[in-house]
Design brief:
Helix 1 packs antiparallel against helix 2 and helix 5 runs antiparallel to helix 6. This protein is rod-shaped. It is about 20% helix and about 30% strand. The protein folds into six domains: about 45 residues, no CATH class; about 40 residues, no CATH class; about 55 residues, no CATH class; about 100 residues, conserved putative lor/sdh protein from methanococcus maripaludis s2 fold, CATH 2.40.420.20; about 90 residues, Efflux pump adaptor protein, beta barrel domain (Elongation Factor Tu (Ef-tu), domain 3, Beta Barrel), CATH 2.40.30; about 110 residues, RNA polymerase II/Efflux pump adaptor protein, barrel-sandwich hybrid domain (OB fold (Dihydrolipoamide Acetyltransferase, E2P)). The strands form eight sheets. A six-stranded antiparallel barrel has the order 10-19-22-21-20-23. Strands 7-27-26-25 form a four-stranded antiparallel β-sheet, with helices on one face.
Amino acid sequence: MNRAGRTGLTLAAILAAGAGGYGAGQRDLALPAMSWLGVLPWLESAATPAASADPAQSGAVIYYRDPDGKPSYAAGPRKTDDGRDYLPVHASEDVSFEEAPPNTAAADAPGAAGANRILYYRNPMGLPDTSPVPKKDSMGMDYIPVYEGEEGDGDTVKVSLGKLQRTGVKSETVTKRVIAQPVRVPGTVQLDERRIAVVATRSEAFIEKVSEVTTGDRVVAGEPLVRVYSPEIAAAGAQYLTDLDITGRVAASGGGRQRLANLGVPADTIAEIERTRKPPLAITWTAPRDGIVLERNVVDGMKVASGDVLFRLADISTVWALVDVAERDLPLIAVGQPVTVRPRGFVDRPFTGKVAVIYPQVNRETRTTRVRVELANPDGILRPDMYVDAEIATGAEAPVTAVPTSAVIDSGSRQVVIVDRGEGRFEPRPVKLGRRGTDFVEIREGVSEGDSVVVTANFLIDAESNLKAALRGMTQDGQQEGQVQ
């Protein structure tokens, strides 16, 4: 049938179907549900010459489908309710979400221009098993052909876009960033040793009167604390008076003033002796500095010996946090690094300071080294022996080439990242690692800024690369053996 005849036949069929539909509508008759669906396949078969059959229909029949396109299928031959046969679906016609491989027949045809040649067939389950001819595995699955050009160059792996989407492969660009890995350690608050003072006598004395200060009170420098009587101080004061001449100048051979100074008598008390020309009967001891009273060891009327501590004072405006750093983390710690300290009772009040001293010894039992952090404590919240948690910010301040931690495949002796070269091509590349941070790791060799690396599902590509290398090695060995034979 020529083209004009096919066109006329098509128009006639459409007009007939339309007239029938109109007539049925006028008589309130219901047409069969497949009226148009039955006509269209007939039109298609009538309009298409037998010589133009789809050459893509190849392979075994895998199932049968409804001829009207309904979602009805059968594993074997079957007929519709009106007696028509279900249409066979060949293997080449089935839906596939993979990239369509090149036509095998065309690839194998001699003299085909630009056609890829099948190198070998590999196991469909990923096992290191190849075959030079088509083959099925123990489960009846066909071996997958590997075409010339698909083996890539070197260690490059080519993955289809469908597989990339299913496995969730994602890539990120390599950038420069600051690598910081905080070292979190426990510790305690201690007093600054340089801000502790004691009030003590240098001779035997009797306590006449103690001021109304108790342990925990705040005192200021020069505030009276205790009044004492010391026979030795009184004797030194009398000697000092004899050393004074009529004009108030000290005689060349006098040693009374020096004795008073050696006994710890305050300078203003010595000046009072010079002014009044009377020996001191009692001496008032004052606070040597601002601070809080840590200890009060005297009461009215008691006797104290030389060297006894009457009061112990401490300035807590600046305190120390002594933290214990594990031996393995010591290389990361350096003097001057910023530290954030959080008291366990005031977790919402962080204190900031810097590493002041790294102690020179390692605790034999705990294998830790003590590190001192100086902290400002203007509100007095930090108290001696309070538990704290410290976070030491380690790492260099200069940005370095870094990738996400998930991008590195670390087997212990080998570190690899997967470089995304675009268009589904990936290259496993060995790298040399540097500092490790919380989310990123420094790369010293292997990749550079601007490269794209795989950060998720990279182990799948690495496994594919290893499989490919094994298959390539087996193929080469087989070729060499064939040449030797």
